[in-house]
Request: fold
Amino acid sequence: MGFFDKIKKGLEKTRQAMATTLGSVFTGFSQIEDEFYDELEESLILADLGVETAGKAVERLRDAVKAQRLKTPEEAKQALKDILVDMLDVGDTELRLDTKPSVILVIGVNGVGKTTTIGKLAAQFVKQGKKVLLVAGDTFRAAAADQLEIWAERSGAGIVRQHEGADPASVVFDGIQAARSRDVDVILCDTAGRLHNKANLMNELNKISRIVERELPDASKEVLLVLDGTTGQNGLIQAREFKQIAGVTSIALTKLDGTAKGGIVIAVADALQISVKYIGVGEKADDLMPFNARDFVNALL
Reply:
């Protein structure tokens, strides 16, 4: 299955839902009129773009229709695609892994698929010939390190872990020392996801960041936020919180194959101005796919 086909299949539920609502907007009108814009905005909100992002997209479409003198809903549909691609274009969609080692700090609330995302990334990097080290920094969730160890074995990555309840920053420090001695290319750090206890989480992430800065001042660093696509606008609320407390640089949206509201990808990128770098559309390691805005929008519409 090709790259585009895989995204298209993964977004099937969203596409079917949008075909019912959005499709009827483009086929139900013979010309572009006020009611067309109203129904279009409602359909985009139903696809989980959110009120603000949907409103912005429709306003931009109105301007494009006037500027380009578009006459038919079909022409408007192509213009809308271009607008959505532009809204998703908020920065580089590739992770910065320019140094040896490079560090990816993976954050997100429990249950979003954080550990699985780390495992899938590890498998992909190892496949590319990179030497990868997993660091089990989520020392508070029972079995988090065990889960990570299974992924390390599966992917061929190394792992550094300590006992349950250990200081996460201390595990990260050990991981950095091990990465140096083992000549590692990429360090993937798991972290705890206790957003409800914001002060503790902020202190913990700050401490981890300080260790990384002190030990690897010149290394490429990414703070990758993992969001569960099925939580929709709730995920956007989480993302705002994490952006505030952790300096998020990139986003991975998981479980998009299980939701009819894949429009959340556009809402997150537009609202936070942080680039989505991966989307999860299935269980296998290569179902965590590098994000491409044009392919995503074409698969969606």
